[in-house]
Structure formats: structure tokens, C-alpha cells
Amino acid sequence: MRRLAVVLMRMAMGAVLGVGMAGCQMGYYAHLVSGHQKIMRERVPVSEILAGEHSEISLTETQRKKLQLSESLRIFAEDVLLLPVDDAYTDYVSFDSPPLQRGWATWNVFAAPALSLTPKTWCYPIAGCATYRGYFDVARANRDAEKLRDKGFEVYAAGAIAYSTLGWFDDPLTTLMLAGDDADFAELLFHELAHRRLYVKGNTEFNESLATSVARAGVKQWRAQLGADNAAQDERLQRRDATRRQVVAMVDETRAALESLYTSDMPEERMLAQRDVLREALRQQYSDALADNPDLARYQRWFDGPLNNAQLNTVADYENLVPRFDAILSQCVADWACFWTEVERIADLPAE
């Protein structure tokens, strides 16, 4: 599952320059500034790459086509989905060689108690609270993850291939974002750009579910607008969506069982044992389903994880409210101006 890391760099810079902040927090924000600047220093305009002005940047033909596609996707996002594109994704950053040779843009840490699905949250100036903490330094992330484990939290950590600065900066395309097919690329761009349109302070589930809903609906509308007769591609995308729904259903079922367990009056020792039984049952359920649906193999690495409370929560953040946002778009008859008016009205309501 893709994970979006939200890093408000102006907030970070302000925090670093501020007074009265604990040393550990100062160090964290300083590392955000440094990590983001390291990426931004490597930016090269996409137009110059496509014009052959940067022979030092090696691209596969597939990657080059993705860069060519990016401009039409940006136009579609702005004109049809009504997303604030500005100059986002007009630059490119290579992660194939030093100083950015790695398979992730940010490294994210999630945590939850051993017997609760309530995620740990981290709070930041301006941005509010979030259910994860993003890093540009995996060693720092691992140290902080170990401290959380020492406090009794379950921890899940994973790399993200993209992050959003929520419009504070013109986010670049990266090597990591060019993997997958055109639909994957379009969905990723629409997801990131949706964060630029609306970000509700302190509500990860709202923000991620909204971006997920917008991105998926946007891809369907974009492909329909192309008018291309590509039945094989459409069938593949339908299978992918069905497979994703299958995974979400399995996780939701397990989360519901765990929620029931954690709110029971069962003794803690028995509760821990039953928790582990439910986790292994989910792993076995996936294994059994994989035998019937080879498309599930794309989730193998995720199911090889600990399947702890922190990891299961990542699916909830991205999926729980998607049906509700989908329903708003349906009620608006795919009118995006209507959709954004209603979503922004809801966002202005009190949190409860």
C-alpha cells in the first residue's frame, strides 16, 4: 500500500528557527528541512530532459513516456478535477544514483498500543496531528521506532514513493513515481494533487480517504476521456480494483474482530493469544485467496509484514471513508465543482 508522507516544510523551518522547543524535536524538524532540500537541489525541468538537454540523466523508454504523459495529466487534473496544479510536477529528480540512491522518498513510522486499534498520533505546528511520522533518514526512523517499542507500542514502518508539501512547494516527479503503468502513474499524481486542494488539519483518515477517492475516480474519467479502445487494459484495471477490494475486505474483517476482542473483558494474557490467532488467520486467508487469485501477489510484501495494529491501521486511513466520498461524487453526477463544494462544506464542520 502506498503511503503518503505529508511534510510541511515552511512549518518545519519555522519550528527549527523557533524558541522553546525540546532538543529532540529541533533535531527532527532540522532533519526534515535538510532531507527535503537535498531532494529539491536535484531538480531538473522535465521540459529540458525531454528536449535532450541533460544527457547525464539516463531514462528508460517507459520512464521517458511517463514524463511526456505528465503534462497532459497535469492539465486534466486542473481543468477537469479542479485541482490546484500550479508548477507541481514540472521538475524531475533521479533516485537512481547518489546522492539520492534509494527505493523510497520518505520513510514512515506508524504505532499503536498492543491491545488497541487507536493509532498513536504525532502533533505538529500548523499541520495538526497525524497518525504517522515521516523521515528522510531511515536510521533516525529506526531509532525512534525502537523507542516506541520500548514503551510498549507495536510499530510498523515502510517507505513511501511520494510525499506532498501541500502546495507550499512545487513537488517534483521522481524516478520512484514512474514505476507501474500509466494508470498507476495517473492515480499517484491525482492523489498527491488532491492534498493540495484540501487538507483537514489533524484528520489523517479524512485526508487520505479523500485523496484516494479523487484519484481513483479521476483515473476512470481520464481513461474514458481518452476514448482509446483498450479492452485488455480496462479488464486489467477492473481486476486490480476487485483485488484491492478483496484485500480491504479481509483487513476490515480482521479489524472488526480485533476491535471486538480489545473491548471485551477477556484477561490480558488470553487476549494477547487470541489477537495473535486472528493475525495468523488473516495471513492464512490471504495465502488461500492467493491460490485462487494470482493478482493478489502484488500484496505479498504487505502480508509478509507483522500485521500488527499499526500496520492494519494504515489500510483504514486510506480506505474507511472512500465509499462516502464516492457517494458524494455520485450524488453530484460527477460534477467536480459540486463535489468540492460539498466536501469543503463538510471539512468546515466541527471534527466530531
Molecular structure report:
The protein has helices spanning 9-17, 23-40, 46-50, 61-79, 138-150, 182-197, 204-226, 231-262, 268-292, 300-303, 309-319, 322-331, 336-347; strands at residues 5-6, 44-45, 91-93, 106-113, 122-124, 128-130, 133-135, 153-160, 163-164, 173-174. It is mostly helical and 352 residues long. The chain has 2 domains: 5-228, no CATH class; 231-319, no CATH class. The protein has a 3-stranded mixed β-sheet. Strands 7-4-8 form a 3-stranded antiparallel β-sheet. Helix 7 packs across helix 12. The longest helix has 32 residues, at 231-262. Residues 1-21 have low confidence and may be disordered.
Average of per-residue pLDDT values:
90
Low-confidence stretches: 1-21
Please bin the fraction of helical residues: 55-70%
H/E element string? EHHEHHEEEEEHEEEHHHHHHHH
Q: Which class best fits the helix and strand makeup? A: mainly alpha
Radius of gyration: 21 Å
Number of domains: 2
Task: State the end-to-end CA separation.
Answer: 28 Å
Largest sheet strand order: 2-3-10
Short characterization:
This protein has 352 residues and is mainly alpha-helical. Helix content is 56%, strand content 10%.
